[in-house]
Amino acid sequence: MRFILAILVGKLIFFLTRNFKLGGGSAAPGLYALSIEPNLVAKLAAKIPKNVVITGTNGKTTTAKMLAHFAKETGLKVIRNHTGSNLERGIASTLISCVNLCVNLKGCRLNFDLGIWELDEAAFNNVTPKLNPEVVIFLNVFRDQLDRYGEIDTVTKNWCQALKKLSSETAVLVNGDDANILKLAACFRGKVQKFGVKDYTIAGESIIHKKEIENLDFEAKNVKTNGLTGISFSLSLHYQSSIVHLPVPGIYHIYDFLAAFAAGTMLNIDPDEMVLSLKTYSPAFGRVEKFHLNPTSHRTPTSEVGYMGYIFLIKNPAGATQVFETIAPNIKPGDRMLLALNDNIADGTDVSWIWDANFELIQNSSNLSERAKSRDYTIIASGSRANDLALRLKYANFNPKEIKIQPDLKQALKQAGMGLKGKLFILPTYTAMLELQSILTKAGIKKHYWEDE
Asked: Were both Cys, which of 115, 127, 184, 350 would link to 48 (CB 3.0–4.6 Å)?
């Protein structure tokens, strides 16, 4: 009876949150349902033939969406926590929203072939055994929200203990270019496969020397960047090579692709079909998401000329620096930047990480002097910690006169669009990104994030 009651309560809360626009129903249904039936996730996940778990500091959502894209293109029915709610309650909410109403556990059905679950670094340890995954992916580990996770040694130690409890039949994938992730191979009694990028070094807590790495099972070579349109490289697999055109910029996204591709091969998805399907792949919300504000629409946040915007999530030093590396060469005269820094629980209440992020990469961009001459370069600092952000920009040698402080994100977006002739690069932290999504949704620019499969 507890199980059935949990399902009913969860579905009721899901219905209320969606229909009364109280949220996306991505966490509350599961939170209340789990308080009634703590084993809900394990019982429902067992009804899915195969499950994949993805964890890491950066790239979980992109990897999950890419793998789901590969699977769907081959006709598989996929369920995943696509809203990014990656604690146990988020997974429970997703399962509840998709399970049919039932009178007993055996009567409950989940008509899916594959479950793809991104898990928070801390949630991984307790939730993974409940999902009994076919494949586990470790993307990377960087300092992130120290108030919640602790130092990376603590994170990897806990992951190691969790790996020891998994079946040796589980396929484990690790980032072979991340020295801290690579250590996990010694914790697992089954087979571990590695992915990585040739001649590229991940800047993190522990730099690995390429010559120390064993042969990678999945490796990207000959990387060529194509501005903001994407990136190309050759993929080496079992002594064969194919050219991949990834429709998202940033070398860090190659790791997401490699992880998704490797998992796909373990799920017996045809490698050639996965590469070809990239032509129709679109990024997850806030992850190199592109949008256009219609200049003729009165519903846009600005009444000025329409512009193209790009949203790059930043949330820790390593991730932010990778974003800066990607956009710095692409900022042109007339472009603007809007950065939004919040210190909510989901962001991490300690924002001192911005002093470790390399904002100087943007300032040192080859286009900067040309932008300064154009006198149209503006950078807007927003969010609950806008002043802290502005101070960091000042110490990154940005001209204080070019830094505009506007804590209100809606007003900051409006201000950024006024008279804009070029592109707008928006770099928000997590909760600022969610707020931005809400602003754009209400303006009719895009659909709700929970509708983005």
From this structure: 115
The per-residue DSSP string of 293-355 comes to --TT-TTSS-SS---EEEEE---SHHHHHHHHHHHGGG--TT-EEEEE---STTT-S--GGGG
pTM of the shown model: 0.89
Q: Are 362 and 450 in contact (CB under 8 A)?
A: no
Number of other residues whose CB lies within 10 A of the CB of residue 121: 24
Do 245 and 228 touch, CB atoms closer than 8 A?
A: no
The 10s digit of each residue's pLDDT in 384-440 is: 999 999 999 999 998 898 899 999 999 999 999 888 888 999 999 999 999 998 898
Domains observed in the chain: 39-77+112-280 (3.40.1190.10), 287-451 (3.90.190.20)
Which own/partner pairs from 297-300 qualify as long-range (CB within 8 Å, at least 24 positions apart)? Answer: 297/444, 299/443, 299/444, 299/445, 300/417, 300/443, 300/444, 300/445
Of 406, 225, 392, nearest in space to 322 by CA:
225
Using CA atoms, how far apart are residues 247 and 283, in angstroms rounded to an integer?
8
Q: How far apart are the first and last CA of the chain?
A: 32
List 172's β-bridge partners, or say none: 136, 192
Q: E-strand spans in 148-190?
A: 171-175
Secondary structure of the chain: what % helix, strand, coil (to 5)? 40, 20, 40
Residue 419, both tokens: 């008279």
Question: Are 171 and 135 in contact, with CB atoms under 8 Å apart?
Answer: yes
Q: Please, which residues have CB within 8 angstroms of residue 25's CB and are 6 or more apart in sequence? A: 13, 14, 15, 17, 18, 93, 97, 450
**Which of these, 109, 160, 112, lies nearest to 136 by C-alpha position?**
160
How confident is the model at residue 442, as a pLDDT?
Answer: 84
Nearest to 311 by CA among 200, 142, 223, 435: 435
